[in-house]
Amino acid sequence: MGRGAADEDGHGHVGRGAADEDGHGHVGLDAADEDGQGHVGLDAADEDGQGHPPRRPPPPPLSYLPFAERPLRRIPQLLAGLALYGFSVALTVRAALGVNPWAVLNQGLERHTPFSFGLLTTLVGAAVLALWIPLRQRPTFGTFANIALVGAAADVGLWLVPQPAGLPVRIALLTAGILLNGLSIAVYVGARFGPGPRDGLMTGLTAATGRSLRTVRTGIEITVLATGWLLGGTVGVGTVLYAVTVGPVAQHYVPKWAYAPRRTAR
Description:
Layout: E1 13-14, E2 25-26, H1 71-95, H2 101-110, H3 117-130, H4 132-135, H5 141-160, H6 167-190, H7 197-209, H8 213-230, H9 237-257
Parallel strand pairs: 1-2
Helix pairs in contact: 1-5, 1-6, 2-3, 2-8, 3-5, 3-7, 6-9, 7-8
């Protein structure tokens, strides 16, 4: 993911304004907890009688939680989300109408190496993780799970789903891939195991340069997209649709999947 994250991973992960975890070139989720307190509010009626509209509830927290925090509850969610992410990327690849920037890079590399799309996803994720060292970023369990699982799931998806011939089927695959990708970002970012390699690169560069998260994310994705396109990756209408739709889809599902720790009785 990118993510949130977000693929984190030929995946355009979820920059997490998240997490594809995406870390996968992902779109950012405007769902990150801003004050780090993990509070989730409810819409409340105006209390001062001034006719002000009710306040929006704060976004659910997506910040990292220690591994020991209910791992048997959170690990299955993380792994399911990452597997679904890889499979959803495979659907967009099979649609052949354009893919997210990190997938464009992986496609381009695939044309010049003997490696599969999924293996290249893993290798690129590992290479991006190496860039964390000078940025003093610390990987987490979620980071390594992202690298190990997303590429493998993408290869499984490419093996299961044949290359369609008709345009209607390709459009259906692209639509399903984008929707499932947004859902998968919410699922694995919501497990709160930390960012994927691509998201960590984004946040590390933001801290190191003092630039805004939006500026750094945009710069990374344009660079990745241009490199992949020059290598022969597929850029098309699907690339644009992914960029403008996957974020809102992920944000819609985040409240349903963001893990909240149990409150301890006092």
